[in-house]
């Protein structure tokens, strides 16, 4: 954001964090010009454009009981709290829990990651977000043979993308290209 403000010093820029499931309504109401987020293949909005595939990891804190297992199953995961993404749909909270009714729903992947680092539970998180914590040893990848949904980093935009939104889109696309 610093680079954008340097490039466009007289432009007001606001960042609003909402789950990807809420992006389309914010763009359609012209609340925002462009929205970026991580979508499952099933949750892809028809108006969203693909930027990159993102690999996901099942993770837990090193001292979490699941981290001690050589391999985890659905039954293992169901015994412990999943920290998952939550969004509003038709005025109801919807949590994207995978295997259990035992969950803690939060609205941002960064907050989910921090809760998992604090051993609140386990989560399915984007690898670029947890790479540093995995390398530092504050998170562990859970070994499993479960089939997980594919995830894609995508964007939804209004009808007339401006120069600031274009510059932001280019920066995000470059960042994602460097990750691969």
Automatic annotation (TrEMBL):
<protein>
    <recommendedName>
        <fullName>LysR substrate-binding domain-containing protein</fullName>
    </recommendedName>
</protein>
<dbReference type="InterPro" id="IPR005119">
    <property type="entry name" value="LysR_subst-bd"/>
</dbReference>
<keyword id="KW-0804">Transcription</keyword>
<comment type="similarity">
    <text>Belongs to the LysR transcriptional regulatory family.</text>
</comment>
<keyword id="KW-0805">Transcription regulation</keyword>
<dbReference type="GO" id="GO:0006355">
    <property type="term" value="P:regulation of DNA-templated transcription"/>
</dbReference>
<feature type="domain" description="LysR substrate-binding">
    <location>
        <begin position="3"/>
        <end position="160"/>
    </location>
</feature>
<dbReference type="Pfam" id="PF03466">
    <property type="entry name" value="LysR_substrate"/>
</dbReference>
<dbReference type="GO" id="GO:0000976">
    <property type="term" value="F:transcription cis-regulatory region binding"/>
</dbReference>
């Amino acid at each position: 954001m610093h680079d954008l403000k340097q490039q466009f010093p007289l432009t007001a820029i606001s960042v609003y964090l909402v789950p990807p499931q809420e992006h389309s309504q914010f763009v359609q109401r012209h609340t925002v010009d462009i929205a970026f987020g991580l979508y499952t293949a099933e949750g892809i909005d028809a108006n969203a454009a693909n930027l990159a595939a993102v690999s996901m990891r099942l993770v837990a804190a090193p001292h979490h009981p699941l981290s001690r297992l050589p391999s985890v199953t659905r039954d293992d995961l169901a015994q412990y709290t999943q920290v998952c993404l939550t969004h509003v749909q038709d005025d109801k909270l919807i949590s994207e829990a995978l295997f259990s009714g035992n969950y803690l729903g939060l609205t941002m992947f960064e907050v989910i990651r921090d809760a998992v680092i604090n051993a609140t539970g386990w989560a399915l998180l984007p690898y670029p977000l947890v790479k540093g914590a995995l390398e530092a040893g504050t998170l562990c990848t859970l070994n499993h043979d479960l089939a997980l949904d594919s995830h894609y980093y995508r964007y939804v935009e209004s009808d007339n993308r401006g120069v600031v939104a274009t510059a932001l889109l280019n920066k995000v696309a470059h960042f994602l290209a460097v990750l691969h």
